[in-house]
Structures are given as structure tokens and as C-alpha cells.
């Protein structure tokens, strides 16, 4: 079973001015597509060809893990963004954020601090904890919380290819801007599941 690049849930210019069409053309159209292509090369003719993406992530290491995890991470990331996103979460998700961080503004500061301090390439995640709360975790390179049986709620890609075209080396400027397109409906749905 070959994997395919999942369709973006919006057009390539839908997140402007926060994330440009040019960034999405490269990030989605080249980087994400490249991970899908390499994953398919690696699994062709192997027992992994019949596995789901999640099964490959949980049973592999090295290059195969990296390609599968990057396909999963990027697909998840695109859904964390929306053209009419931004604002603040409501309901049980907002309650969990306030219980952990005291306020949404404090949460944003903590998330940005984690993401800014995520040295090199990686991802910063909001996860659901075993007690039903929330927490922020960083992963390096292609690593993903689902490899560690953690429930993912939201992520921001902090690999340079996620922001370099629009923001050059100003990661914090990218982080501050991406809050304007966060898809809180998607995050709340993940929290409720």
C-alpha cells in the first residue's frame, strides 16, 4: 500500500499573510511530498507496506521512522492551522489550559518559550496528559508524541523550512504570527476524543 500526500485542508494562499503561499508550496509541496516519496521507497516490497502510518512509526527506527513520523507530523500540523483560525480556545480545552498555566496568555508565553528553545530542528506540541490535563513537550528532528503513546492536541513545526522564506531566521516572529491561524476547533476535537 503506497502512501499519498494528503490534500491540504485549505488553499496554499489561505494562511497569508502569516504563512505565505510560497512557504506552503515548498513546505507542503516539496518537503512533505519528499517524505511521502521516500517512505514509499523504503516500504516497497517489505512487511511495512501493509502497515498503517502509525504502525510503522511505532515499530521502526532510523530512516524509516524519520520518514513515517515526518509524514504524520506534517499532516497533523496542516490541520492545526486554519484560514479563520486564531483567537482563544473555549470550553473544556480552555479550562484545561487555564488549570495548567493560569491563563491563555501565560500558556502562549510558555509555548513560545518551549518552541524558541527547541534547539535545531523539531516540533513543539500541546499534549493531553494521562490525568486529562495538558502539557507542552518538545521533540527533536522527526520524533513525535505518538511514538511514546502520548495524545497529540496541537503542534507547531519549528524546522527552519516551516518559516525561513517568510521570516528568515526569526523563529519568534513566526511563532507570534502562527497564533493568528491556529485551528482551535481541531485542537478541541483532539482534546475531546
UniProtKB/TrEMBL annotation:
Residue ranges occupied by any Manganese/iron superoxide dismutase C-terminal domain in the UniProt entry: 89-190
Gene3D superfamilies from the UniProt entry: Fe,Mn superoxide dismutase (SOD) domain (1.10.287.990), Iron/manganese superoxide dismutase, C-terminal domain (3.55.40.20)
GO molecular function, one term: superoxide dismutase activity
EC nos: 1.15.1.1
Residues covered by the Manganese/iron superoxide dismutase N-terminal domain: 3-82
Reactions mediated catalytically: 2 superoxide + 2 H(+) = H2O2 + O2
Keywords: Metal-binding, Oxidoreductase
Enzyme category, top tier: oxidoreductase
Keyword Metal-binding attributed: yes
Presence of keyword Metal-binding: yes
Pfam families according to UniProt: Sod_Fe_C, Sod_Fe_N
UniProt record similarity statement: Belongs to the iron/manganese superoxide dismutase family.
Annotated function: Destroys radicals which are normally produced within the cells and which are toxic to biological systems.
PANTHER family linked to this entry: SUPEROXIDE DISMUTASE, SUPEROXIDE DISMUTASE [FE] 2, CHLOROPLASTIC
Protein known as: Superoxide dismutase
Organism this protein belongs to: Halomonas tibetensis
Organism lineage string: Bacteria, Pseudomonadati, Pseudomonadota, Gammaproteobacteria, Oceanospirillales
